[in-house]
Design a protein that fits this description.
By secondary structure, this protein is mostly beta strands. The protein is 5% helix and 39% strand. The chain is globular, with a radius of gyration of 19 Å. The termini are far apart. The relative contact order is 0.25.
Length: 145
């Protein structure tokens, strides 16, 4: 699948897959200087790119496991969503979950983009829903004892 991409900054790096079968393409920080994210704070990191996703597809922005485990940095909204009709800059709101200030370097890989199909549902209000074995059992209701 070909995805249209536009560099909004000459220093932007085109997303790249780290291995042949990687599901997520790395997104890179397009910043002029190193950025410090204080402990417990969130900073929006630009990527310098815009996408043209096909209708019926979305770009999901996930944490990079290495960045999350080594520095405690992960998207503040857990999973960012780039809709197919969005043409603005892709940015990553990085939250510092660690107990100390962390830095993001110029060109550092800050998140990963997974392109996936989606279904647009038609929500139909009903007076009653069908019965299931689980019913209204909530959190932890399907675990074994």
């Amino acid at each position: 699948m070909k995805i249209g991409i536009k560099k909004l900054d000459e220093n932007a790096v085109i997303p790249a897959y780290g291995s042949e079968y990687a599901a997520g393409a790395d997104l890179y920080a397009c910043i002029k200087q190193q950025v410090t994210i204080p402990a417990g704070e969130t900073v929006v990191i630009p990527t310098g790119i815009a996408l043209e996703l096909p209708v019926g597809y979305a770009g999901l922005i996930y944490a990079r496991s290495g960045l999350a485990t080594k520095k405690g940095l992960a998207p503040a909204n857990k999973v960012g969503v780039v809709d197919c009709d969005y043409r603005g800059e892709v940015k990553v709101a990085l939250h510092n979950h660690s107990g100390k200030d962390q830095t993001v370097d110029i060109g550092e890989r800050v998140a990963q983009l997974v392109i996936t199909p989606y279904i647009t549902a038609v929500f139909e209000e009903k007076a009653e829903l069908s019965d299931t074995a689980r019913g209204a059992g909530g959190f932890g209701s399907t675990g074994t004892k």
